[in-house]
Design brief:
It is built from 6 helices and 7 strands, in the order E-H-H-E-E-H-E-H-E-H-E-E-H. The protein has helices at about 10-20, 40-50, 85-90, 105-120, 135-145, 175-180; strands at about 1-5, 60-70, 70-80, 95-100, 125-130, 150-155, 165-170. It is an alpha+beta fold and about 190 residues long. The protein has one domain (about 1-180): Aminopeptidase (3-Layer(aba) Sandwich), CATH 3.40.630. The protein is globular.
């Protein structure tokens, strides 16, 4: 698996992924509406990856990458280097999703390991991950990776699911994450 920036060449696959996850009420592309200019969207993602604000989630720095396996987009990873009030409750430092046809193949675990690695490289010592209380797949990935359960909080005002909070520490990263061959994150290289 390779993690890399989104490009304009990804338009068809990314929109297909966005539509596939819409039925699960989970965005593949943050703050994207069908009919928007994909070129303009990729430029916004590039600006975010270069230090700009994180879409509509309150302007925290981070990175948004797509996960690719054998030339096909299988998911996405978003890493927030800082947390605002909303992210402290509902989003956490690392967010990832795996497209339905590619689940249960280890992609979520690889993305989580890469996201934590990016945080540790930035000098963070602790990371918060959240997931819906009924997302059995994410719960399994996070717990297998050594996430320490902290609490469950009620869903947001918009009727979202209750959120489970998990903590990771750089010093206590489990052997499963340390021994995992972290995917190489491709440099931005190709801009829109």
């Amino acid at each position: 698996m390779n993690l890399r920036p989104l490009t304009v060449a990804d338009e068809t696959a990314a929109i297909r992924a966005h539509e596939a996850l819409a039925s699960e009420d989970f965005p593949f592309l943050f703050d994207f509406r069908l009919g928007d200019s994909f070129l303009a969207y990729v430029r916004r993602v590039d600006a975010f990856n270069d230090g700009g604000p994180f879409f509509t989630e309150g302007g925290v720095p981070g990175i948004f990458l797509v996960a690719e396996c054998e030339g096909e987009i299988v998911g996405r990873l978003s890493v927030r280097y800082e947390l605002n009030a909303y992210l402290r409750e509902y989003g956490g430092h690392v967010g990832y999703c795996v497209l339905p046809g590619f689940r249960r193949r280890g992609h979520g675990t690889e993305m989580l390991a890469a996201g934590l690695d990016l945080l540790w490289r930035r000098g963070l010592d602790r990371a918060l991950l959240t997931c819906d209380d009924d997302n059995v797949g994410s719960i399994a990935v996070i717990e297998r990776a050594g996430g320490s359960y902290a609490k469950t909080i009620p869903g947001d005002q918009e009727g979202g699911a209750d959120k489970r909070h998990y903590l990771f520490s750089r010093d206590s990263s489990p052997a499963t994450l340390r021994s995992l061959k972290n995917p190489i994150v491709s440099p931005p290289g190709q801009k829109a």
